[in-house]
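stage 2 :: seqdesign
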């Protein structure tokens, strides 16, 4: 069971519970949902979310995803990152954890 992770706001995750699918703002803006591998999480949180509050870490079982998963190269970071090209079906999210930031 390959796992990837997505950082979500509590508000966006709550909306997903009502809608039945999770769609981050980046899906509409960029065409995909940004995700990370476990080894990338600490740096992603520090780089993009250090001043944010009310965050959750979604653990996603990639074998359960109904939207396309593609690993794309990031020139800025010089690494590949998992991106989901469509909404995340809720049953693919196997764990939701609160993230504490400073």
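stage 2 :: out
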């Amino acid at each position: 069971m390959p796992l990837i992770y997505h950082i979500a706001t509590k508000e966006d995750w709550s909306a997903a519970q009502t809608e039945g699918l999770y769609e981050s703002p980046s899906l509409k803006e960029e065409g995909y949902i940004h995700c990370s591998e476990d080894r990338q999480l600490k740096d992603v949180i520090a780089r993009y979310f250090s001043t944010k509050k009310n965050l959750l870490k979604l653990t996603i079982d990639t074998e359960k995803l109904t939207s396309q998963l593609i690993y794309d190269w990031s020139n800025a970071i010089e690494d590949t990152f998992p991106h989901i090209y469509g909404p995340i079906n809720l049953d693919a999210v196997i764990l939701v954890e609160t993230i504490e930031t400073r």
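stage 3 :: structure notes
- Helices lie at 10-19, 25-30, 38-48.
- The longest helix spans residues 38-48.
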